[in-house]
Amino acid sequence: LIHDDLAGQHKVRIVYGDHQGNAKTGVSEFNWLVNADKAWVVATSRSQIGMALNPLSAKRHIPLLGTVGHDQFVSENPYAWRFFPSAAAEASALARKALQMGLKRAAILTIQDEWTLALARAFRENFVKGGGEIVYFEALTPPDYDLASVISRIRTVSPDAIMTGFS
Q: Out of 72, 105, 106, 116, which could bridge 110 as a Cys pair, Cβ 3.0 to 4.6 Å?
C-alpha cells in the first residue's frame, strides 16, 4: 500500500508484486515495493515467503500482513500481522475434534511443504497426547508419487481417519 498526502487528501494506491512462490523473488519484490514505490505496508502469502520477508520487515519497520501459518511469523517480528491460524492452532483443533468424534487411529498423508509438514507434525503431537494413535505417516514429494499405492498402504493399517495436508 502506498499512502500519498496531497493537499490534505489521503490517497491509498495498491501496488502489486509477484513472489512466484519463491522466497528469493519475494525478497526482491519486497525491496522493490519499499524502495522504488515507497510502500509502507506489504502483504504476502505462504510461510516460505513470509519468513524470508520477516527480518526485512522488522529491520525497516514495514508492517507485513500475511496469510502465513508458520508459528514464528508473528513472534519474531513486531511488525508482522497474521491473517491465518498457525499450523499448531489449526492442527490442535483438528486433533481435538477427531478425538471428540471417537476416532482413535489416524493416518497422516501430506506433501513435503513447510506448512503441510508443520500441520502434520502438530496434528500427530496433539492426537497422540490426547490418546490417539498414528498408524501411518507419509510425506510425499510432488509430483513423484503413486497415489494408488499410497492408498493401498493406508488401507492395510485400517485407520479411523486420514488427515491430509496438500497445498
A: 116
